[in-house]
Amino acid sequence: MSCDYQDDATSLARQVASGTVSPDELLDAAIARVAALNPKLNAVVLMQEEVARAAIKSGLPDGPFTGVPFLIKDLGAEASDFPSHCGSSLLRDTCYAYDSEIYCRMRATGVVTFGRAASPEGGVGPVTEASVYNGPTRNPWDFSRTSGGSSGGSAAAVAAGIVAMAHGSDGGGSVRIPASNCGLFGFKATRARFPDGPMVGEGWAGMAIDGFLTRSVRDNAAMMDACAGPDKGQPYAAPSMEMSFGQAIARPPRRLRIAMCDTTFSGAAIDPVCKTAVEETAKILDGLGHHVTPACPQADHDGMMRAWTKIVACGTALWIEAATTARGRNLRQGDLQGVARGAQVFASGISGADYLAAVNKIHAYGRQMAEAFDECDIILSATLAEPPALVGRFSHDREDYENYRVGPGGVFEYSPFCAAFNASGQPAASVPLHWSSDGLPIGVHLAAAFGDDATLIALCAELEQAAPWAAKRPGML
Q1: How far is CA 64 from CA 188, 226, 227, 235, 449, in A?
Q2: pLDDT, tens digit, for every residue of 41-71?
Q3: From the candidates 11, 73, 169, 424, which is the catalytic residue?
Q4: CATH architecture, range 9-466
Q5: Active site residue 73
Q6: What span, in angstroms and rounded, lies between the C-alpha atoms of 128 and 75?
Q7: Which of 115, 127, 296, 473 could be joined to 394 by an S-S link, Cβ 3.0–4.6 Å?
Q8: Residue spans per domain, the chain
């Protein structure tokens, strides 16, 4: 059978509950779309159909997504039934002796996980072009364009209709960038809203967090509700929400003060199509009765990004050292791509004191961004400064890691908004509200004060009703 492309995961689960369709039939449809589309997209990897069939046969948990096919990102979400490459030849076929808490919580929703989705090596970069998967992951809207990174495989699979929802993670925009590129909804919750255990206490000094790529706001809300809350021994946790994500989207938010920034946060021009997306969204918000005022947050954005670059380099060096130690050998040719090699070299010049200074810079930036919300409730911007990049523009074959991130024409110029809210820990979302004249998705970015996830997702749901996007689909599929 074939499900309607517009069906979100909530709708599919209701069809399973009513007996209209079975979990096996939904899995059949997902696997058929993998066979038809994955050769073009290179999004789904390490399929485990037998594991999925066994889970259905043994009885699925009774949750909001019982019977719905699902993919987990090939980075993190450690699961004993799902080996991982983590985007790297060095980590090829990594097996786990345990299930991560985030995976356990996702599984408890009743989803039928049948594989992983491609990610770049170590999760670094706004594209998914890992050599371990024998080629780049492409955008369903235009195969010459990137699906984004680092949750690019998840976004491509959802946009192509292979699955209605997939797991991702976000340490510098890695959910929101692919959401923008692929015409999806992506939400980065407040720092430590979800568990990281038992493998680590935090990712990238607390800047990384799990998340989800979805077609609808309600799917994201339900999955985040299922996964929210600290696990045992977590070093810190997000503040409690005034209401659940699901409760928040059940009613419109109060009328909000919205700061509209149609440049970068530093005042540089962005691509006209991205600026138009911001301006059109501002008109929608104004029409809904919100108070929109031109303004950009005043903070040390360049200093933040340079500190972010140091922290991520050290995180990269850490996993490389752990991998070689576990394998009992030195690095070999072909183990790593250029960006990871460059990050390792860059990290070797960073002292312990330098690292802690970078963490302090991030924390200082968070305080600056907190002050920005004294004057507004929401910051509106583009998600990216440009439309989706061409495949190869941010290739991981280059070794000049620092220049790759913050140099001329580098990642920070392309994506100057997203990492700001990983550094500050504040919740942020990419909403698919605009398409270019040549049919490319252009995401709009919304962010709220630390801990105010409920207000943010309520606004996203209001925008979804005001400017529905569910009927849009890639024309080349």
Answers
A1: 21, 9, 12, 29, 28
A2: 999 999 999 999 999 999 999 999 999 999 9
A3: 73
A4: Alpha-Beta Complex (3.90)
A5: yes
A6: 12
A7: 127
A8: 9-466
